[in-house]
Write a structure and sequence with these properties.
elongated; 9 helices; 12 strands; 5-stranded mixed beta sheet; alpha+beta
Length: 364
C-alpha cells in the first residue's frame, strides 16, 4: 500500500508511469521514468506588434489583388456584353433570311407635317423578339397601336437580359421617359411612363446638319436628299416610301464594314439612357458622329457641356468598359470593339450603307 501511495505522489511531482516488459523477478511490469512535467503547459499568443504586422501584410496583399479581381470581373462582363450583341446579330440575320430585309430601326405613322403627327409603332428590338426566344413577349405587343400606349406598356416595362450589358448600372430599375414627339397625341400617351432600360442602340446612319438624324420622322420626310446619311436601322415612315427597310444589297460598303448596333450608357440623366423597347426617337437608336464627345463618353451631362447641343448627345455611343471601349455588331453579324480615339470621319462613315468603303479600325 505504501508503494502505490508513493507512486501516486511521484506522478504528481513530475513523474509518470511507463509500462515496460517485466524483468528479473518483478511482477509489476512497471518502472518509474522521470519526464518533464506536463501538468502546466505554456500558452502562446500574438503580441500587438505582431498583429499589426499581419494586418498590414494582409492589407497590402488585398490592395495588390483587388485590381486584378476587378479587372477579371470587368473582362467577364465585357465578354457577356459582346455575347449579347452576338445573339442580337444572329437574330437579325434570321430576321433578314425570313423577311429579305433588316427590321426597321423604328416604324412610324405620320410625317409630322400638315397636321399628321408622328405616331411611333414598332422598332428593331420588338421585331427581333421571336428570334430571341421571346415570342410570348412579342405576342403581347400590339403592332398597330402606339408604342407607348397603355396596351403596349407591359412590354416596354419588361426587363430583357439580352438587351442589357452587365457593366451598366441600374439595369434592374424602371426609369421615367417622355413619350411625346411633335405633339401630345403623337405617341398615343402624353404623360411620362415607366420603361425598362437597355444597353444597345441601332445605327440609323450619320448625322447630317447639326439637328438632322435618321431616327427622326421629320428628317426622313424632309425635302433634302438625305440618302448619304442612311444607315442599316433607320426610322421608316409609312408616308415616305423612298426610304424603306434596308436590304443587304443596299449595303454597298460591305457588311463587315458597316456598323449595325452598338452600346450606349450614361451615368447621368437616367431618362437619357437606352430603352430597348421604346420607339421614341433616340431611345434605342443612335447615329455615328465625328465628334469625340459623341463617341465613348458615358456621361450625358458632360457631353452636353462639350457639344452645347443636346440632340447630338441623345445619339451618342458610349460604355462603362475599361477605356470606354464600345462593343458593336456589324451587318455581317460579327462583334467588334471600337476605341473612343477611332478617327471621327471613319466612324461616321462606318454607320452608313453607302459611304466610304474602308475597313473599320477595330480593337481585337
Amino acid at each position: 500500500m505504501r508503494t502505490r501511495h508513493a507512486l501516486r505522489r511521484c506522478s504528481g511531482q513530475g513523474f509518470t508511469l511507463v509500462e515496460l516488459p517485466a524483468v528479473s523477478n518483478r511482477k509489476t511490469g512497471f518502472t518509474l521514468v522521470e519526464l518533464p512535467g506536463v501538468s502546466k503547459r505554456k500558452r502562446f499568443a500574438f503580441t500587438l506588434v505582431e498583429l499589426l504586422v499581419v494586418i498590414t501584410i494582409i492589407g497590402i496583399l488585398t490592395a495588390m489583388l483587388l485590381p486584378a479581381v476587378q479587372s477579371a470581373r470587368e473582362s467577364a462582363r465585357n465578354s457577356q456584353c459582346g455575347n449579347n450583341l452576338k445573339q442580337i446579330g444572329l437574330a437579325i440575320q434570321s430576321y433578314e433570311a425570313q423577311w429579305r430585309s433588316f427590321p426597321p430601326g423604328g416604324f412610324c405613322v405620320g410625317d409630322g407635317a400638315n397636321n399628321h403627327p408622328v405616331k411611333g409603332r414598332t422598332n428593331w428590338a420588338i421585331c427581333l423578339l421571336p428570334f430571341l426566344e421571346a415570342s410570348n413577349l412579342y405576342d403581347m405587343y400590339e403592332l398597330n397601336l402606339p408604342n407607348t400606349g397603355p396596351e403596349n406598356q407591359p412590354v416596354l416595362q419588361t426587363f430583357l437580359p439580352v438587351m442589357t450589358c452587365p457593366s451598366d448600372v441600374d439595369t434592374d430599375t424602371l426609369s421615367t421617359i417622355l413619350t411625346n414627339w411633335t405633339s401630345p397625341a403623337s405617341s398615343g400617351n402624353s404623360d411620362p411612363i415607366l420603361a425598362a432600360p437597355g444597353s444597345y442602340k441601332g445605327v440609323t446612319g450619320q448625322r447630317g446638319l447639326p439637328y438632322w438624324f435618321f431616327d427622326d420622322a421629320t428628317t426622313v420626310a424632309g425635302p433634302l436628299n438625305t440618302e448619304f446619311m442612311r444607315g442599316p436601322l433607320h426610322t421608316v415612315v409609312e408616308e415616305v416610301p423612298r426610304y424603306p427597310t434596308v436590304q443587304t444589297t443596299h449595303i454597298r460598303d460591305g457588311l463587315t464594314n458597316t456598323l449595325l448596333i452598338g452600346e450606349y450608357h450614361s451615368t447621368t440623366q437616367p431618362d437619357r439612357r437606352a430603352f430597348w423597347a421604346s420607339t421614341h426617337l433616340s431611345h434605342n437608336l443612335s447615329s455615328t458622329q465625328p465628334d469625340s464627345y459623341a463617341r465613348g463618353l458615358p456621361d450625358f451631362d458632360a457631353c452636353v457641356v462639350l457639344s452645347g447641343i443636346q440632340q447630338q448627345c441623345h445619339r451618342a455611343f458610349a460604355s462603362l468598359h475599361s477605356g470606354n471601349v464600345m462593343n458593336f455588331v456589324t451587318c455581317a453579324g460579327n462583334v467588334i470593339r471600337i476605341t473612343p480615339n477611332m478617327d471621327g470621319a471613319l466612324f461616321q462613315a462606318a454607320g452608313t450603307i453607302a459611304g466610304v468603303n474602308e475597313p473599320i479600325v477595330l480593337l481585337e
